[in-house]
Amino acid sequence: MKIAHVIRRISFSDWGGTEQVVWNLAKAQLAAGHDVRLFATTALYAQGHEDLAPSCPAQDVLHPGVPAGVAQSCAKLRISRFHPIYPWWPMRKSLIAQLDRKGGNPFVPGMGRALREWRPDVIHCHAMGRIAELCLRVGERGTGNGERIKCVISLHGGGAKVPEAEAKSLVAPTRQLLPWGKAVDILMGWTRRVPEDFGGIVCVGEDEADYWRSRHPHVLFLPNGVDTALYAQPHKEVAPSCQAQEVLHPGVPAGVAQTCANGHSKVAVLCVARIDRQKNQMALVEALARNPTLTLRLAGPVTQPDYREELERRAAELGVSDRLSFAGALPPGSRELVSEYHAADVFALASRHEPFGIVVLEAWAAGLPVVASDVGGLGRLCAAHKGAALTFPPGDASALDNALARAGSDEALRSSLSTAGRAAAARYDWRALSDSLVDFYGTL
After folding, report:
1. Burial grade of 340 (CB within 10 A; 0-12, 13-18, 19 or more)
2. What percent of the chain has pLDDT over 70?
3. CATH, residue 110
4. Hey, how many other C-beta atoms are within 10 angstroms of the C-beta on 61?
5. Neighbour tally for 42: CB within 10 Å
6. Torsion angle in degrees (nearest 10) through CA of 217, 383, 295, 102
7. How confident is the model at residue 239 (pLDDT cuts 50, 70, 90)?
8. Considering only CA atoms, which of 119, 171, 156 is closest in space to residue 141?
9. Contact 74/53 with Cβ under 8 angstroms?
10. Residue 65: pLDDT over 50
11. Are 154 and 256 found together in one domain?
12. Out of 202-211, 215-224, 256-265, least confident range
């Protein structure tokens, strides 16, 4: 089967949950004998600096109709890239960089033609807006022999469940600009409904799958997966007290992580998520002020630079800057990322909304006690594996503090959470998930 995965951006040096899902599914399908390609924009793509891909260094290859250097092949998986055009005026370079990271709803010239020329059996779209519309158009035009191409869309970000305040923050950068793209949409007749007009809808959140099952005949709940062998480590015991000493934590200034003093140990809390209001790292930063035994390590790319500034400013106001550190964007499955999990004592994810939470699977596979907000698919994931995580209601600071304190100091509970988490992670395997997805294609 020829499968085209279409995604807005994929950059191995600036990674997110959606990219990780697409990459691992595509690799598993390739390993199963399918002909698979990725189609993406050049957003955040730095030619010559994309050598951090899992499994192999990236190699630039020529793609017909696309300038040399904007298509690449990695692990025998070809990625074809096309320059996005953001339909706003005036368009500053700084704004382009901001929209590359999140949002923008671009036009992508050349992508549709490349898809038609390759003639896939399935177009699997992992984006919304104009890219989704483009996929539908190509699917309707078909292979040239009268047959339509099957079109599937994955809903990775919770769809319409984005809180109003966060939705406003996404459009804020373009609020004072002229949206010339709307006129083009009307002229081109781009009026299709997304995701309703796709032949199949794939949801990474079970609650979202339930919603769409009542509105669409072909819906698949496909949770995220994890490479358990990659993240596994021997069980790590952390005593509730110790002699005064410093324990090495890669990339963290001395004294920030796991420093023991006066018989009390510092508990190293890790959060792996893009620096973004959706992920609500602010709740964890403020928890530092109420819990002097905690340190906090934030790993992930910055998709909202102003939010990172808010986090640093708030940490300074609270006097906890010395217990907060940033790891930056770490390549998926990299030694650096795995080391972050292994060096931590507790994993925490305080998202405002979350369709699933792939990083929780990674933390479970690494044997870390997990503390997570009880929202959306994230809450359902934790509830489905009782004893594998401590959850708290979003916005409940006291409940968050209690969960962090218990996960960091109760040895018996930590051991129980670790064991249950490993068992939960073992149920999610990328190869099995890929097989389920290919079976779903066959039903359309």
Report:
1. buried
2. 82
3. 3.40.50.2000
4. 15
5. 20
6. 10
7. very low
8. 119
9. yes
10. no
11. no
12. 256-265
Q: Are residues 88 and 73 in the same domain?
A: yes
What was the pLDDT predicted at 251?
42
The answer to whether 373 and 349 are in contact (CB under 8 A) is yes
Identify the pLDDT of residue 74: 56
- List, edge to edge, every strand of the sheet that includes 346-349: 324-328, 294-299, 267-272, 346-349, 370-373, 389-392
CA distances (Å), origin 376, targets 157, 379, 421: 11, 6, 19
Residue with tokens 């081109």: 188
More confident residue, 262 or 16: 16
Give the model's pLDDT for residue 432: 87
Residue ranges of the alpha helices (H) in 65-163?
93-101, 111-118, 129-141
Could you write out the DSSP letters of every residue in 35-63? EEEEEEE-TT--TT-----TTS--EE---
pLDDT tens string 146-168: 789 999 999 986 554 555 665 56
Q: Beta strands 370-373 and 346-349: pairing type? A: parallel
Domain match, 318 and 194 both? no
Phi-psi region of 438 (alpha: psi -120 to 50; beta: other; left: phi over 0): alpha
Say if residue 9 is in the same domain as residue 98. Answer: yes
252 lies in the same domain as 291: yes
| Rounded CA separation 123/1 (Å) | 11
**Domain count along the chain:** 2
Q: Which has the closest alpha carbon to 98: 346, 302, 361, 310?
A: 302
pLDDT at 145 over 80: no
Which one is predicted more confidently, 179 or 319? 319
Taking CA atoms, 204 is separated from 191, 380, 422, in Å, by 26, 12, 21
Q: Is residue 125 helix, strand or coil? A: strand
- The residue-averaged pLDDT of 57-71 equals 41
CA distance 94 to 185: 25
Range of the domain at 329: 228-425
Q: What mean pLDDT is predicted for residues 95-121? A: 91
User: Amino acid letter at 235?
Assistant: H
Residues 41 and 157 reside in one and the same domain: yes
pLDDT tens string 328-354: 988 778 889 999 999 999 999 999 988
Do 139 and 237 fall into the same domain?
no
Single-letter code of the amino acid located at 295: T
* Cis-peptide, bond into residue 90, ω within 30° of zero: yes
Q: Are residues 204 and 271 in the same domain?
A: no
Contact of 86 with 99, CB cutoff 8 Å: yes
